[in-house]
Amino acid sequence: MNTNFPSLTPEDITRIGQETYLNELKENLEQSHLGEYVVIEVKTKKYFINPDLVTAIQKAKKEFPDSLFFIVQIGKLHTPSIQQKKESYAWLF
Fold first, then answer.
1. pLDDT of residue 26
2. Is-contact 71 57, C-beta < 8 A?
3. What are the backbone dihedrals phi and psi of residue 86, each rounded to the nearest 5 degrees, phi first?
4. How much is the pLDDT for 63?
5. pLDDT along the chain (93 residues), means of 10
6. 44: which of 1, 14, 62, 78 is 20 to 30 A away, CA to CA?
7. Which residue in 82, 89, 2 sits closest to 41, CA to CA?
8. Residue 31: CA atoms inside 13 Å, Cβ hemisphere, count?
9. DSSP secondary structure string for all residues of the chain
10. Residue 77: its pLDDT value, please?
């Protein structure tokens, strides 16, 4: 287990997942996987892509059975504005 992330809250997972998606994955994934789902294991930044949400989650759970994930439909998450940051988080379990 990565000791840099001893215990992550859902808010931490959301923050790290959004940063990872927006800063490292978004541009590349939107070119070839628009509309599909990406499931990000935020501790390792490993991600799983599939057009079917359930299948994407199953792939991630197979490799990381005890992890919580940041999940987004590719192309649906944009750089959050100040107003959006006040609204609910964009994570699923």
1. 94
2. yes
3. -80, -20
4. 96
5. 64 94 95 95 96 96 94 79 45 47
6. 78
7. 2
8. 3
9. --TTSSS--HHHHHHHHHHHIIIIIHHHHHHH-TTSEEEEETTTTEEEEESSHHHHHHHHHHH-TT---EEEETTS--PPPHHHHHS------
10. 74
